Amino acid sequence: MKKKMWLIPVGIVAVVILVVVGAMGYMRANSLSFSVGQSLVANNGEYIMVLDDSPVCMSNVNDKEGLFDNIGNGDKILVLHDGINDTYPGKTGAYAVFKLDDGAVSDISKSVLSQLTEMGWLSAEVYKLDNNLYAGGAFEVTGSKVTFINDQTALYEKSLNFDKMDTDSIFNIPVFKFETMQDAEDFIAFFEDEYLSDGAHGDIDDFKDKIKAMGDEYFDEYTVFVMYVITGSGATDVDVHSVYNDGENLCIHVAKTTLEGVGGVTVMSGFLYTVAIEKESVKNCTSFDADENNF
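^ thats the sequence. predicted structure below, dont judge the formating
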């Protein structure tokens, strides 16, 4: 009897092999596979699996209760799924989801987070990427009403992002950078006659007064970016939505809103918005841009 005891482990191994082979055959026949990635929850409640730099939206194929329970942003997950559609984000059907380890949003590819935020899948207020995506009060913003003129060619040509747009662009916004008070004074001197004559507007200060109030010491700590934003007839005003900064590229995202104490404008108007960011965080940036409704 003892001599046949060895048959027990052999039988167990054989059963395991048969189960594995059967499972692999079933998966192959149904185009199923396992993938390891990181999880994200979109604004609309959909769950996303991030595979390297590729986000994939997961649907609950069998309406399995609790399929995504206890899965948080950035968690490492193992997913049994069917084929992935070639879209951005991709799409796949999930059959089983296993949490392997806790994670955080900062563990996910920054390029993926930035793209999904700009496409509206993620909220900039929620998915703040360390020093890469500023939202809310992470930067200082002031606005000033200035003269609207039809010919904006000179202003566009002197902007930092002129190569990214033309004078008819409705998405990109001309942006300028002040490292010192002298930079600001040079800007005012160049554009004063045509642009900077309207002064205060509601609770929004006069641009020249706002710059003078900053003083030289302010520029020791902050780099000040200035955007010229046009609001159409009957449109609401605008404000800064978020600022993306990966250490080399900086982009200021603008959203339509109503600034406190101002309300909507009823005629074509021009506004100058200053966005102050700590010098240390932008000192190595070489590419600058600003845009509207692109987040």
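The chain has three domains: 1-29, 33-110, 131-292.
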